Fold:
Amino acid sequence: MAKKNKKAETVFLVCEETGDYNYSLRRKPGGEKLRLKKYCPRLRKHTVHVEKKK
Structure:
């Protein structure tokens, strides 16, 4: 039986308020999209960031 090799892919965390690509990370494909509260340098406060593929 052959194993499927799921390689990590690069995804970006985009600020919901400004639309800026502030963070990038590598994660395995599949699962739900990330929604994290991260720091936005443009607004200088913590905002919700969502996962997006480029």
